[in-house]
Amino acid sequence: MLEPHILEPLADDAWPARERARLGGWRLNASSGQSMRINACWPLAAPDRDPEAALDAVEAWFAERNLPPRFKLTDGVVAPVDLAQRLAARGYAACKTTLVMLGQLRDVAGGEGDAAIRLSDTPDATFEAVFTATAGNPEDGRERLEALGRIPAPARFARLDIDGVPAAIGASAIGGGYAGIFGMRTVPDHRRKGLARRVLRALLAEAKTLGAERAWLQVEADNAPAIALYADEGFEPGYRYSYWVR
Length: 246
Known about the structure:
246 residues, eight-stranded mixed β-sheet
């Protein structure tokens, strides 16, 4: 099973923030403040200064951008190891635990030949319309769409049409022999029809052709239906991360 110290840098590069910086092994990401992943510090290795000085610098960096400071603490790669205690002493607490699931592409079901699914290397206007319609918060949807547009090549964007009308979408980022799955969305009127499964299979089949051997995805730890779907498609729990906020 893939170690988080290998996957987390790939995950950071696959879903790039608008603005990025480093403090040694700490990665700082800032966008519009909506999606936590691209608006947080990822302390994946030792910082380039004393930990308390690094915390001060992170808080100042986010304050300069009018964003609340956030930290993404991942099982097995937090540096220093007592960072959670240091954050708690400053008034931070953990929230929004996310599960990273992993799969071997040879073990997941194939999705070749699904004529209803269209694949492209950029998110077109129709893809964006479905994503926006299912976002809930327009600002959050806009920020995530911008992030989708920054996924480095080769990226793939899948759209499934029902009776000529877009019904479900998803995206993938390929890097380091791995496929990361993002942006899985289904229009409300078409949910619980197995469309997400078909989109996932098409993305994974395409990832094989692009040289990926494994796949990973992130799902909120309390989203039991999604976890069950991915498990049924060959994905297994890998590790977890949580955000720390004031």
